[in-house]
Each structure stands twice: as structure tokens, then as C-alpha cells.
Amino acid sequence: MKRNKFIATLAALTALPALSFSQLKKSLTGNGKGFKINAGEGRIHGHLKLKGVNSNVLDVKISGSDTNGDLAIFEQTSLSQGRGTPLHVHHLQDEIFYILEGAYYFQVGEDKYHLTAGDSIFLPRKVPHAWTQVSEKGKMTVIMQPAGKLENFFVAVAALEKEPTPKEMAQLFADNEMEVVGPPLKIE
Q1: Is the pTM higher than 0.85?
Q2: Which of 1, 59, 135, 158 ranks highest by number of CB atoms within 10 Å?
């Protein structure tokens, strides 16, 4: 009798890694279904109306929660001519911008670039960067890899009741894996 109980216990323990692996595999591969996000819509949060660095509207197209944190894609409708981000660093993520409409001015490290519709720019992790909207209106796609906490940052900024102070904004950056290292970029 003891031997049968021992064998049953051993068999159950042997199955645990297989069950755990099955759950792990499912969490790493998602549900295996694609999805569509309609033009002009955000997938999870709807339109996020930002406060602080600018008053733009952001739509989450692909959430980090869709990709197990591997990737996030946002579409930003820019409504804040002459405004943009402070000089900041993403310590853990690379960032890519693709300009859909309008014109922007970027700084990546010491280099500065003028971008217009159809242009792309790569901002490597750990390199200080900033951008400012040049045109009256604009639109760009922002890609983060891995996703990091930028989505959380956008949700927090949209939920603010008032414009944050520079100190409050720096804290929001820090709370979401970013660091403000300088002032906003002036258009040259």
C-alpha cells in the first residue's frame, strides 16, 4: 500500500513541471489570435488626452499586455505646436518614431534632426533624447521595444486633474522607468 502511495505521489510530482511548462508556454504565446485596431481608436484606453509635456492625444494600438511586455505601439495625434518632451532617457527600451503627418524636431544624444511625413528615427536605450512638434498639427507612430512602462506613463498623465509642475512631471517619468536629464528641446 505504501509503495502504491509513493508511486502515485511520484507520478504527481513528475507531472508538475509539465503542467507548469504548459502554463508558461501559454503565457508566452498569448491566446494565438490576432486582432484589428480601427483607425482613430485606441485598443484598451480609448483616446488618452495628455497633460504636461504636451496636450496631445494618444491611442494605444498594441499594448505591452498584448505582447507579454515585448513590444508596444502608440499613435500620437500632435496638437501642441512648439511643445514636446524634456530631454530624457529610457534606460531599458529602444524607441522608434514614424512620422505620419506634420513636422517634428528631434535630438538624439548630441545630434539634431528635422523629420517630416514618411521619416523615421531610432532612439537607442540609454541615450538622452527629446522632440518638439514643429507643425501646427501632426501625427506619429511610436514603437517601444520592449514595452516597458510608457503606457502606464501615458495613462497616468491623462488622468491628471491639472497640468503637472516640472518636478511632478519628472517624478512621473521616474515612476515609469524614464529619467528627465534636461529641458525641452527648442526649435532651431
Answers
A1: no
A2: 59
